[in-house]
Design brief:
This protein has about 425 residues and is mainly β. The strands form six sheets. Strands 1, 4, 5, 9, 21 and 22 form a six-stranded antiparallel beta sheet that branches. It has six helices and 22 strands. Helix 3 packs across helix 5.
């Protein structure tokens, strides 16, 4: 198919913004030995350690294949004339969190490109990157209007830098936290219902409230959240496969997620993403802000190839401490369901291999976009005169995560909130 550059229209309204990696400021030693020293600062409860600079290359792809639907394979070997996609105009949104307890994202050297049937368009990064007006949720937005003809393949690629850390949590200090009179206003969104997370569900609410002997408020919010997560794990009988749905070429296609409640606490099983959303619902049910961070990791296959996969990191918020991470899958592997909240459990607060995770979003579909052929964190909007042949169309996500050396400061406090530093 012939595609002419003059038919491509890229957005003109997005403002340029750059988020440099978190600056590290070292305190200078006192020049006067006789000068009275100020009291040493309190040790942070959540500390970043072992910094790594990495380059992430994330690709959102859409292509046509007769094997698009494994449960209903087509008998006809030929693709539709020209391709599976007819695009009048298209907007693709890929969310990226600019900062979490373990990652800072740097868009100052963002490289963005679009490909239509192999034809490359280098994009202006200042028009692709949409800076968050508040909080940490940024958006990479790819927009254009290829000719109104069928397209067999589309790809949207973003390359940027991250600095990622492992996170160390002083659990004893966190367990001494107290309940606030009220939570910060910006955390209210993490207390209510959303797709796949329903803290008002009667079964989840009862389970979470009864998880702490003596009542939720008889212990610190740290221990109450831990009890709620452990209670969910006690009801989770089995895992029903991976959170990552793979396409016919074994690339990541989307999330294995049934947000309408088909799986979950009622039957005691589901995928890792369903376990994560259930744990977060339980923590919200006892009045503690909590969320799922949807991230990507690179895993090696048995054949030695690298594939992108989803990994969900749950978090709950404590004032003056910040976000505390936990991974229900790791907790489950450590037998957390049969252990009390007083015991340290790997996967709660201190989570293995956080540094491997690129955090993208806190919801499975970005605001302002529709889900693609699967729930997959990213989304799209099709303009007029656009259509997709669902019998042949399939999407995929690829990730290349390359080392760019170590960070200069070996440890630092994690951010205390989502608000601007």
């Amino acid at each position: 198919m012939s595609i002419r550059a003059r038919h491509t229209r890229w957005p003109r309204t997005l403002a340029v913004a750059a988020l440099p990696l978190l600056a590290c400021i070292a305190a200078s030693p006192c020049a006067d030995a006789q000068q009275s020293a100020s009291p040493p600062p309190a040790q942070p409860v959540v500390t970043r350690t072992d910094p790594k600079i990495r380059e992430a290359r994330i690709e959102i792809g859409c292509y046509g294949t007769k094997y698009a639907n494994a449960l209903n394979p087509l008998q006809d070997d030929s693709l539709p004339a020209g391709g599976a996609y007819r695009i009048g105009s298209l907007s693709v949104g890929l969310p990226v969190l600019t900062r979490t307890s373990w990652c800072d994202t740097d868009f100052t050297k963002l490289d963005a490109r679009a490909y239509f049937d192999g034809r490359e368009f280098k994009l202006d990064p200042t028009r692709v990157y949409a800076k968050p007006t508040s909080g940490v949720e940024a958006m990479l937005r790819f927009e254009g209007s290829p000719p109104g003809e069928s397209v067999s393949e589309m790809r949207f690629v973003a390359t940027f830098l991250t600095q990622r850390w492992e996170v160390s949590v002083d659990e004893r200090a966190a367990a001494r936290s107290t309940w606030p009179r009220e939570w910060p206003s910006w955390t209210q969104r993490y207390l209510v219902s959303e797709m796949g997370i329903d803290p008002s569900d009667a079964a989840i609410k009862a389970l979470a409230e009864q998880a702490t002997a003596g009542g939720v408020r008889s212990v610190s919010p740290f221990l109450a959240a831990k009890n709620a997560a452990i209670a969910v794990l006690g009801r989770w009988k089995s895992m029903t496969g991976s959170s990552s749905e793979l396409g016919p070429d074994k690339s990541l296609r989307g999330l294995q997620f049934s947000p309408n409640g088909v799986y979950g606490i009622g039957i005691g099983r589901g995928t890792p993403v369903e376990l994560a959303t259930t744990c977060v619902a339980a923590v919200r049910a006892i009045g503690i802000p909590s969320r799922v961070v949807y991230g990507l990791v690179v895993n090696e296959t048995r054949s030695g190839k690298s594939n992108a996969n989803f990994r969900m990191i749950c978090e709950f918020y404590l004032p003056d401490i910040g976000w505390i991470p936990f991974d229900p899958v790791e907790m489950r592997s450590q037998g957390a369901a049969s252990r009390g909240a007083a015991a340290a459990i790997k996967g709660f607060a201190n989570v293995s291999d956080l540094e491997d995770v690129i955090p993208l979003a806190v919801k499975p579909v970005p605001d302002g976009f529709q889900r693609a052929d699967r729930l997959a964190v990213w989304g799209w909007n099709l303009g007029p005169n656009s259509s997709i042949d669902s019998n042949y169309a399939i999407s995929r996500i690829k990730l290349l995560d390359s080392s760019r050396g170590n960070g200069k400061v070996k440890s630092m406090p994690a951010p205390l909130s989502d608000e601007a530093p």
